[in-house]
Amino acid sequence: MIKNVHGNTVDFLGEAIVSGKYPVGGSLPPEPVLCEQLGVSRTVIRESVKSLVAKGLIVTGPKVGTRVLTEEQWNWFDPDVIAWQAKAGLTAEFLRDLQELRKVVEPAAVRLAAQRATAADIQGVSAAYAGMKKAIEEGGDYVTHDMHFHTGMLVASHNRMIVQMSKALGALLRTSFEISTTRKDAPKEALPLHKAVLDAVIAKNPDKAEKAIRVLIEEAHHDMEHVLTSRRKLPTLSGPAKLIKAQ
Q: Which domains, ranges and CATH numbers included, belong to the chain?
């Protein structure tokens, strides 16, 4: 998606904050400096600052100026914040937080999906599964289909809060899938686990669906720990999803 001047300015400042260019407790450069540096108007800078305040990255005030807040105050359910962190570099702590979040949210969502999924929901998740299978057999974009599978399950819960979370969780999930697929044969081994989740949801069996997604998440956790302990360089996720070779 092509962003406008405001969006590009927010990205520039957000990435600078998340990467540590503007340290916690420090101030952003004055408006005139940012205007000259970025080639934008004061109005754009002010609107961009408002966006960053809404994302929890900075605070403004007559006596404090524009100050960078600590990571704990950032909105980690904002897809932009996730994208900026991924671009700046993923950390083991960030990834383990993600795995813990999945263990809390996904089993409950899939259990609800097994009770509430519509025919359209099933069709969408089934298409995502078919895309994963094709990528494994022929090579291609496995990660995007994997994301659609999991976010589709969240949407199929038909819980408004979980559906809203799915927008941010999609960005979070990509970090997990990009890393786990770096282990040889991981997608191929995970495919039957996804099928078990899908079959249980189609069968409207909440207990079986919840158990199946827990197994899948646990396997993803093992893949993640394998990559982390190997000290392999983590992906930055700054571009499109990495394609896999036929397995």
A: 5-73 (1.10.10.10), 90-229 (1.20.120.530)
